[in-house]
Amino acid sequence: xxxxxxxxxxxxxxxxxxxxxxxxxxxxxxxxxxxxxxxxxxxxxxxxxxxxxxxxxxxxxxxxxxxxxxxxxxxxxxxxxxxxxxxxxxxxxxxxxxxxxxxxxxxxxxxxxxxxxxxxxxxxxxxxxxxxxxxxxxxxxxxxxxx
Length: 147
Ligand SMILES: [Zn+2]
Description:
Blueprint: E1 4-9, E2 12-20, E3 26-33, E4 36-44, E5 50-57, E6 60-68, E7 74-80, E8 92-99, E9 107-114, E10 117-118
Antiparallel strand pairs: 1-2, 2-3, 3-4, 4-5, 5-6, 6-7, 7-8, 8-9, 9-10
Zinc ion is lined by residues 129, 131-132, 134, 143-144, 146-147.
């Protein structure tokens, strides 16, 4: 089967497009306007679970964005700023949360952005690893993933 399907107008992708893995599962789906991503986009893992969801405007991210672990748990999420015709259009804005793989709910890292740049040190609510001091990712342990 074809690995992608969608329309082109004047050789530019237009409207809904879907791509597939060789196993026939969807790889991505979303919309184009005049060859650039515009509208909702979803990426999938090979196993069929969603890996990320987001919005594009004029080929750049805008609004809420979320990614998932392959097991379906939320991995991280946050917002891209509104498009206001400035150079920071399409950059991360505000608080982004990273979640524990074990439950997809516990926040292990919060990153705060303004116009795509970190405005303060990242916060690690689960504290440091008892062995090496790196951030703990999982509420059920006092160690980081490397220890
Ligand atoms: Zn460690």
